[in-house]
């Protein structure tokens, strides 16, 4: 490599030595290029203007210290002056920061005496905040409680929510001085934590600060403060929850056993307490607050299973508990309650409506079994109670299986005890239904029977129905009867997760799920309390909307809604979201006479108008599926318009289109891609035809498609149904169906022949391809051999060229040495020649001098 570089340098120097003008031109061009770059850069520096200095972001009247130059070093000094500080990091150009500025100013005016409000411009390039912090979004709020912090606020930038979060930071603990306050504190549905600390030995026990820090750590995880922390200082009050040792942390759980922080297993630190609480706490209501930007929060929660989304009006600063939230929380707690008492109450509710049959056991002549079908009171009325037993003629085996499952072990036990009468009952659900179950009770027949009765008893197949067993007494207290919701979470496979959202902040989401009205205030007129509920099942891609009646309360409506969803065969109908036909309504209001407007060329269908338009038996409907974001659909608009113009005079063909991105359709009418075209022929809508994907969507192809599959052409000879009787009207329809089936069979035969021909052709092509493959493989092998020989020749030629280059280089070096030696020889020869000439000249002069001397001497 070095030898080649040296050769290149020698050649360049040799060329420059032979052509000195080329060297001068290269130098001149390099100087001009450097001057041009320098001149351009000097002009660019002058074009860029310096940034304007920032100005105050908050008004001077607001009690907020505005560090608009990004003076981050002054934040520490301002924090040390107050117990609680709020730091608002903003960018002056950010629209979110501008919107949050008004909310923060409103909160600052209320809490200026308790909290130090500081705003820092973190966008100014010369400020210290920009150099030390790397924020990916604005604004950002950090709260500091004394030396603890920062606590980042992750909620909506709305004044009530920000103020509520600040108040939680100011008072992270709730003081519980008496048993009444403790019971009230534990009566809410949110998770509650109680700490017992005695303030006797010192002003603050050692573990109290750790417990206070754990409450602040919880606010870091949840800005709403769902987990509330309380503190008890009185030993008598602590004994109400069985707390005896000092510095004990107690986690209250409603559905399971409450827990005490294990100090022997975990370190007593704020992080350990907070992690322990969030690992073991119970939450029946989950608050959701989508950020309003691109986020997967909602998808992450909905993928866990069916979700009940409750949109409720919520005031974070409300002093009194929200009554709607309390009703929903009560339903959620009862829904998740699965203890033994709840099951006994459920059994009582089942026995309130039961239908019984008494059957003689085949294994014994002295035992009978009473099988009762018990139904939940919540799904029945007095007029709807019916026995749903299978008939004895067809369902005897079913009843015998129930008897063998429930009664035989009871009968054997009674025989072993040798008692005159014995009773045993067992219950089991039917088909995984949480609202119905079978109960079977075995009973010994009295032994005081005469001979005739003893003879007749084996022939009995059924005895008169008995009264319900005393082991399952009917409930007389209506409050203790099951409501169909208590413990339902443990009785059905279709479990629900309860989510609560603020209707004012999440109204666009409620609209997309099916809420009506332009604003959330319209819900107060319809629902009466401004609430909206929907069940979303992301796995099945369906959701259901709660339609409340005016006289029903929220509790009654939600309980019925949940029961209908949990039933094995749900009566709920899938909610389809479609576009509101507001333009048509406005035009109808302005112009009462609808006949004045001409019929549109293309009918725009929505969710509500889809089925009435498409299922019109008297019209052939050509339906075009499109979306607003589909570029191919926009390209085809002119083709659909031309087709509608050609068919405008035909009253039996309708050209329609539907935006499937904004209108939900029944599953049987959905398509797998857009654009798609379907034809629903008249008289036979169930024989809809899809436009072939391999054909280009052009006007001639569409016309041929309509004429081929339309009902008017296919059933032109269809007779008119006679009115003389049902048989005269049904016969032509059957004949038409038979002719259509014959055509289809013939078409299938022709298709089979074409397929056979195509398969034969494919077999021949496959055979020819095999021969071609073999010949190509042989040619490939020959080419590989030729390639190997060429590579060998290439390597040999390369080696020869390398040798020739080496020899040429040696010759060049030798010639250069010879040239140097030749030049030296020339110089030597010239010197020898000059010396010889000098000697000859001296000899001549000496000879002449001798001749003169001799001549003078003579």
UniProtKB/TrEMBL annotation:
It comes from the Eukaryota. Keywords: Coiled coil. SUPFAM superfamilies: Thioredoxin-like. Residues 451-484, 836-858 are annotated as: Disordered. Pfam families: Thioredoxin, TXNDC11_2nd. InterPro entries: Thioredoxin-like_sf, Thioredoxin_dom-contain_11, Thioredoxin_domain, TXNDC11_thioredoxin. PANTHER family: THIOREDOXIN DOMAIN-CONTAINING PROTEIN 11. This is Thioredoxin domain-containing protein 11. It comes from Collichthys lucidus.
């Amino acid at each position: 490599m070095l030898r080649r570089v040296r050769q290149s340098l020698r050649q360049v120097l040799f060329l420059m030595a032979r052509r000195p003008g080329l060297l001068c031109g290269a130098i001149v061009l390099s100087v001009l290029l450097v001057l041009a770059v320098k001149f351009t850069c000097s002009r660019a520096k002058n074009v860029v203007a310096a940034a304007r200095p920032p100005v105050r972001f908050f008004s001077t009247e607001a009690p907020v210290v505005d560090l608009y130059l990004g003076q981050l070093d002054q934040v520490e000094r301002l924090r040390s002056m107050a117990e609680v500080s709020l730091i608002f990091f903003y960018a002056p150009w950010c629209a979110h920061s501008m919107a949050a500025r008004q909310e923060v100013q409103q909160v600052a005016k209320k809490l200026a005496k308790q909290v130090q409000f500081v705003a820092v411009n973190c966008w100014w390039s010369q400020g210290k905040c920009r150099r030390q912090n790397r924020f990916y979004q604005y604004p950002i709020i950090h709260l500091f409680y004394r030396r603890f912090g920062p606590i980042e606020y992750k909620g909506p930038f709305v004044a009530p929510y920000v103020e509520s979060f600040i108040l939680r930071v100011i008072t992270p603990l709730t003081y519980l001085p008496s048993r009444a306050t403790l019971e009230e504190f534990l009566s809410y549905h949110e998770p509650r934590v109680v700490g017992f600390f005695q303030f006797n030995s010192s002003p603050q026990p050692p573990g109290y600060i750790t417990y206070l820090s754990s409450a602040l750590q919880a606010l870091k995880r949840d800005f709403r403060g769902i987990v509330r922390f309380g503190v008890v200082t009185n030993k008598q009050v602590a004994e109400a929850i069985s707390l005896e040792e000092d510095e004990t942390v107690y986690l209250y759980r409603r559905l399971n056993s409450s827990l005490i922080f294990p100090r022997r297993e975990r370190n007593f630190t704020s992080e350990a307490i907070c992690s322990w609480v969030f690992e073991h706490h119970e939450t029946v209501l989950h608050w959701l607050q989508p950020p309003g930007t691109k986020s997967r929060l909602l998808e992450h929660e909905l993928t866990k299973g069916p979700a009940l989304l409750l949109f409720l009006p919520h005031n974070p600063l409300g002093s009194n508990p929200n009554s709607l939230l309390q009703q929903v929380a009560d339903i959620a707690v009862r829904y998740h309650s699965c203890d033994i008492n709840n099951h006994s109450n459920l059994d009582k509710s089942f026995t309130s409506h039961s239908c019984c049959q008494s059957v003689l056991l085949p294994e014994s002549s002295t035992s009978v079994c009473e099988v009762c079908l018990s139904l939940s009171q919540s799904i029945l009325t007095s007029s709807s109670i019916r026995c749903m037993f299978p008939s004895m003629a067809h369902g005897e085996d079913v009843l015998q299986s129930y008897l063998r499952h429930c009664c035989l072990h009871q009968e054997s036990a009674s025989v072993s005890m040798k008692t005159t009468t014995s009773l045993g009952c067992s219950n089991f659900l039917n088909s995984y239904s949480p609202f119905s179950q079978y109960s079977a009770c075995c009973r010994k027949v009295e032994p005081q029977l005469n001979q005739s009765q003893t003879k007749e008893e084996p022939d009995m197949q059924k005895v008169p129905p008995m009264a319900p067993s005393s082991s399952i007494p009917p409930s007389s207290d209506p409050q203790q009867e099951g409501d169909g919701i208590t413990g339902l979470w443990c009785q059905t496979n279709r479990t629900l997760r309860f989510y609560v959202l603020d209707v004012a902040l999440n109204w666009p989401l409620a609209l997309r799920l099916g809420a009506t009205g332009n604003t959330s205030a319209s819900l107060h007129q319809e629902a009466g309390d401004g609430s909206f509920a929907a069940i979303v099942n992301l796995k099945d891609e369906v959701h259901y909307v709660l339609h409340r009646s005016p006289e029903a309360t929220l509790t009654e409506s939600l309980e019925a809604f949940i029961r209908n969803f949990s039933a094995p065969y749900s009566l709920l109908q899938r909610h389809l979201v479609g576009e509101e036909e507001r333009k048509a309504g406005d035009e109808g209001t302005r112009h009462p006479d609808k006949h004045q407007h001409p019929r549109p060329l293309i009918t725009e269908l929505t969710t509500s108008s889809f089925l009435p338009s498409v299922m019109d038996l008297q019209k052939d409907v050509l339906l075009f599926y499109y979306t607003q974001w589909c570029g191919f659909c926009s390209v085809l608009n002119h083709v659909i318009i031309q087709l509608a113009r050609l068919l405008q005079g035909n009253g039996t063909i309708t050209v329609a289109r539907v935006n499937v991105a904004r209108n939900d359709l029944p599953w049987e009418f959905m398509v797998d891609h857009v654009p798609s075209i379907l034809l629903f022929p008249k008289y036979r809508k169930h024989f809809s035809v899809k436009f072939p994907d391999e054909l280009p969507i052009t006007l001639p192809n569409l016309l041929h498609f309509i004429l081929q599959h339309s009902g008017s052409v296919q059933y032109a000879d269809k007779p008119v149904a006679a009115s003389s009787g049902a048989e005269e009207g049904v016969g032509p329809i059957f004949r038409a169906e038979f002719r259509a089936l014959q055509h289809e069979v013939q078409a299938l035969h022709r298709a089979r022949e074409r397929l056979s021909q195509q398969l034969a052709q494919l077999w021949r092509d496959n055979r020819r391809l095999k021969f071609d493959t073999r010949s190509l493989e042989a040619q490939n092998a020959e080419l590989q051999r030729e390639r190997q020989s060429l590579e060998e020749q290439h390597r040999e030629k390369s080696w020869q060229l390398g040798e020739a280059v080496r020899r040429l280089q040696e010759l060049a070096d030798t010639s250069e040495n010879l040239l140097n030696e030749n030049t030296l020889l020339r110089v030597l020869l010239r010197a020898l020649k000059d010396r010889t000439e000098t000697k000859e000249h001296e000899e001549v002069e000496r000879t002449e001098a001798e001749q003169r001397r001799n001549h003078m001497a003579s």
